[in-house]
Design a protein that fits this description.
By secondary structure, this protein is an alpha+beta fold. About 35% of the residues lie in helices and about 15% in strands. The chain folds into 2 domains: about 100 residues; about 140 residues, no CATH class.
C-alpha cells in the first residue's frame, strides 16, 4: 500500500508518482485541507445532512489523513491508472476508488485555484492574465493522452492519432519560460485534430511583444506576436519570423530554451 509517510522519504519516487516535490506537496496540502473543510464541514455528513453524532466513529478509512487523500488523487491524475490498480495501491475497492475520485477532483481544483496556479482556459483572456516584468517568452506545444478505443467506428477514426499510432485526446498548452508552469490549457479535442488547427480555432490572445517558440507541428501558425522561433529539419538553419513574417535565419539562436519543452511533459 502506498503511504505518504514512507513515500516522502524517497523524493525521486515521490516526484515520479505525484509530479510534485515533497515541499510543493506541503504547500498544496494547506490549500487542499481548507478546500476539503469548506466542501465537507465536520458537522455535516458526506451527503450534506446534519450529523447526529460527532465524526470519527466507525471503521477508519485508508484515506483518513488529508495527506493520504491528496496523495491518492495526485497519483491518479499523474499515472491515470485503472481504478482496480489504484484500489490495490490504496487498499480500496473499485467502487470506493470511483467515489473518492469524483469527490476529490473538484477539491483539488479549488485548492489549485486558491494558490493561483490553475492555467487559463479562455483563449481571449490569456494575454491579460500574463502581466509580469520582462519580455514575455512562451513555448506552445500539444499533449496527447491515451484513451480507451471507442466502440463506434466513426468515433474510432476521430480519436485515432496517426502520428502516435493510438487513440487519444489532445490539448494545446502554453508554458512561460520564466517559471515553466502551464499557463494556458485549451479545451480537449479528438486525437485526429492537428495541433495547428486547434491553435487557429482557439484564437489565443498573447501579451504585447511576445516571443513564441513552437515545434514543427505548428508549421504555418503565425499569431500576432513580436517574433516566433521554429526548429528546422536537419541540414537547414532554423529561422526567426519577426511579426509573423518570414525572416532571415539566425545561426546560433536556440530553437527552444534547452530542455524546457520536455520538462513539462
Amino acid at each position: 500500500m502506498l503511504d505518504y509517510t514512507a513515500l516522502k522519504s524517497n523524493p525521486q519516487k515521490f516526484l515520479a508518482l505525484t509530479g510534485l516535490t515533497p515541499e510543493e506537496f506541503q504547500r498544496l496540502l494547506v490549500a487542499f485541507r481548507h478546500a476539503y473543510q469548506r466542501r465537507f464541514p465536520s458537522d455535516r455528513t458526506m451527503t450534506g445532512r446534519p450529523r447526529q453524532r460527532p465524526a470519527g466513529a466507525g471503521r477508519k478509512s485508508s484515506l483518513d489523513p488529508p495527506e493520504q487523500r491528496l496523495l491518492f488523487i495526485l497519483v491518479y491524475l499523474k499515472t491515470y491508472a485503472l481504478q482496480v490498480v489504484l484500489g490495490e495501491l490504496f487498499a480500496l475497492s473499485q467502487p470506493r476508488v470511483n467515489q473518492w475520485i469524483h469527490r476529490l477532483v473538484p477539491i483539488l481544483r479549488e485548492a489549485l485555484d486558491e494558490l493561483g496556479v490553475l492555467p487559463e482556459r479562455t483563449a481571449e483572456h490569456f494575454g491579460g492574465s500574463q502581466a509580469g516584468p520582462g519580455e514575455p517568452v512562451f513555448i506552445i506545444d500539444a499533449t496527447e493522452r491515451r484513451r480507451q478505443r471507442p466502440k463506434n467506428p466513426e468515433k474510432q477514426a476521430l480519436c485515432y492519432s496517426g502520428r502516435k499510432k493510438k487513440h487519444c485526446d489532445k490539448n494545446v498548452v502554453i508554458v512561460p519560460v520564466r517559471d515553466q508552469r502551464v499557463a494556458f490549457l485549451s479545451p480537449t479535442y479528438a486525437g485526429k485534430v492537428h495541433e495547428k488547427k486547434i491553435a487557429d480555432q482557439e484564437g489565443i490572445a498573447y501579451p504585447p511583444d511576445t516571443v513564441l517558440y513552437k515545434d514543427t507541428g505548428f508549421q504555418g501558425y503565425e499569431p500576432l506576436v513580436k517574433k516566433t522561433y521554429q526548429p528546422k529539419k536537419k541540414g537547414t538553419r532554423q529561422g526567426a519570423n519577426p511579426g509573423g513574417e518570414a525572416g532571415q535565419s539566425r545561426p546560433g539562436q536556440d530553437s527552444c530554451p534547452r530542455g524546457a519543452c520536455h520538462r513539462r511533459r
